[in-house]
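debug: dumping io for the single-chain case to check the tokenizer round-trip. Nothing else runs in this session.
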Amino acid sequence: MNNETVSYKQETVAPAKTFVNRDASQTRLIAGVSVPDGPLITAVIEHAQRLSEPYLFNHAMRSWLFAEAIGRIKGIDYDRDTTAKSWLLARYSTTSV
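debug: decoded output
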């Protein structure tokens, strides 16, 4: 076995700048939760509702609203538009449409 000493140089890397859309210019209130609004989000909601049974659509909406509420309460920086689209469409990656 080789007894050479190996030294590691640890580099400091600045954190990446992220786009945060915490205060969307257009919002709507759903079940007491302020959420982003716009033509694309409206289309995503309508698409999700068209594709799914009511229980699945309601679950997706509740999940989105819960994520929004937690993010706001904890002061987490996140992209609100992406969160909406992700939660509303995530269920369809596991179902046949």
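debug: round-trip ok. Residues 10-23 have pLDDT under 50 and may be disordered.
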